[in-house]
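Readers outside the structure-tokenisation community will struggle with the description of the input data as it stands. I therefore recommend that a typical entry be quoted early in the introduction. An entry of this sort, consisting of the sequence and the corresponding backbone structure tokens, reads as follows:
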Amino acid sequence: MQLSRRKFLYVASGAVALPAISGMARAQSYPTRPVRLIVGFDAGGAADILARLMGQWLSERIGQQFVIENRSGASGSIAAEAVARAPPDGYTLLLLPGSTDIINATLYEKLNFDFMRDIVPVAGIIRAPHIMVVHPSFPARTIPEFVAFAKAGPDKVNMASAGFGTPSHMCGELFKTMAGIDMAHVPYRGAGPALVDLLGGQVQVFFSSLPSSAGYLRTGKLRALGVTAATRSETLPDVPAIGDFLPGYEASAITGLGAPRSTPSEIIKTLNKEVNAGLADPRIKTRLAELGGTALPGSPADFGKLIADETEKWGKVVKLVGIKRE
């Protein structure tokens, strides 16, 4: 049974009573052994980079090793399920990568767990936009020109994505809906193959993460039309926000840490405190900026509200577009 948004926020705020004495006892000695941080994507990607960045920080701050474990597959759902089924003792955590788990919560009709019920928010890490990129030979140089081109030839624009239901796909679906245009969706097995075909002209547009496309943008092999954040990115100050032309458009990806339901609140508070300390460190802030995003500090309740808001938002897009996965 799905947990209502109101009840989810209630849980996230820590209002549900926990066994206080046993929880405090565990928190006072936590951690006494290595902690697993499970990532739902392969090593080397943006999610893995973030996990290793925060894992190293937490290892140094808390005094126990945070071991990164990559469990790719099903757009991150395999990793999320592993954490949902893990003992709620703080020794198995989930990197919630780039809004993927949030999208999956409404995209998949048959998951073996309930994301909103079984994973509790620990701390936000980063908010990062995607970049709408095209080949330099593409005739449109601005968002209005792109929209006009797509309306004039609806069968001439193929939109690549890193896979069905991924943030790059959903950014494009939201753009299509708000712009009133059509683009053929071409899903790939990751951003790498999508960029290869964009560079080769097999597809015309891709909503890419900044780390994936930064090198091509610097060398002029790709051109950026807009960023999906509500405002311009400090990393790409000359690239306008898509929302400047499509008022209300915003599709930033959020990444943070989650834990199994019923994890003691004192352990969650400890992890949240140390993550926030890391986000205030200039070295980590610089690294997050290099990844194209900004730090996302706050309490577990703050992160929980953001997750609830994003789940509601993408659920509307999934319903409107009519996309579902078994």
